Amino acid sequence: MAPSLLHFNTAAAVAVASAKAAENDNVSRVQLPDKTRNSRVLVLGGTGRVGGSTATALSKLCPDLRIVVGGRNREKGAAMVATLGKNSEFVEVNINNKDSLEAALSDVDLVVHAAGPFQQSQKCTVLEAAIETQTAYLDVCDDTNYAFRAKSFKGRAVDANIPAITTGGVYPGVSNVMAAELVRAARSESKTEPERLRFSYYTAGSGGAGPTILATSFLLLGEEVVAYNKGQKIKLKPFTGMLNVDFGKGIGKRDVYLLNLPEVRSAHEVLEVPTVSARFGTAPFFWNWGMEAMTNLLPAEFLRDRSKVQQLVEWFDPLVRAVDGIAGERVSMRVDLECTNERSTLALFSHRRLSVAVGNATAAFAVAILEGSTQPGVWFPEEPEGIAVEAREELLKRAAEGAIAFVMNKPPWMVETDPKELGLGIYV
């Protein structure tokens, strides 16, 4: 790999594209190796927003792939297949039923698990079935407990000779790879050690990603936040520690709050950064106020109960859909790295549509697996055995298709509208 970080078009490593390109068929096609060119890829949750956008992105990126849409609703499945075209089919599958899963996996080469939410799930049934049927695996998990439970199957995946990536969506996922590249550049190019890594995320409304994202957000409010400060694990109240973060052109400054996200622990352990935290914020501003109020007024036990949270989703969903029509679905993620020599760099990714961005990101991970980037075992995106260092540039380029801004390894002042952050609060 070239010594400078991610040369996309110039040494500046800055890629900017129009969102229009992502919504048209103007996508750079991928020529897969002969042995995987006609692979069958099962997308579980393929009739939902995340799975559906993943299936769509995959079919555009690799038209020769055979896309199998997995779900429970045949009517929605037929509609999705009609959209995807002749190289697709629908299969009815219940992810909580071992026999149903193994039957669906019996003749596919890769399974993409996008049937969330992952919070409060007690078993990794899809991963276990993938290991039993020797099927490559990818999930878009955004839950710390689930992700590390999946990692416990590493030995079994090695024995079965299957590659598997957990937390392989947009965030976590692409954000992890961005962080890994910042850390790699700091150590290899600047000869310095990372001290603090901060993940900051923003979406407008629900990001157009449907009830699953809403359920995930509510469930996360019931989880104590785990962060790391100078190597020590600390626990904090969810949706506290507000920072006003500048996401640059097209997004601006946004308030973000602490949440318990898996990339905090995985980055701390894999990248060996002593201080790590993650924050999330949304718009309009009153949604943030509502999330704070829920954290303060509702017992954590209530917010950890999936059936109760599902009830909340049913109540709030019509209102959220209405507000989404006004707020749009812009998404941005910023990763900040501070090092021992006071060197500060960032990575920034912004897109007009989260539903498109998450599809592009997940498809980029799926293609990397099919290209042979992933070794047997269960890996996080920032581990080189999951996404090989030399494959990161291409993965990020594919994930950033249609982005309004994508910047790697630059000082904050080159991106921000005002380089000083406001309202620092808890600084971890």
Automatic annotation (TrEMBL):
Residues 1-21 form the signal peptide. SUPFAM superfamilies: NAD(P)-binding Rossmann-fold domains (SSF51735). Keywords: Signal. Residues 41-152 form the Saccharopine dehydrogenase NADP binding domain. The keyword Signal applies. PANTHER family: CARBOXYNORSPERMIDINE SYNTHASE. This is Saccharopine dehydrogenase NADP binding domain-containing protein. It comes from Gossypium arboreum (Tree cotton).
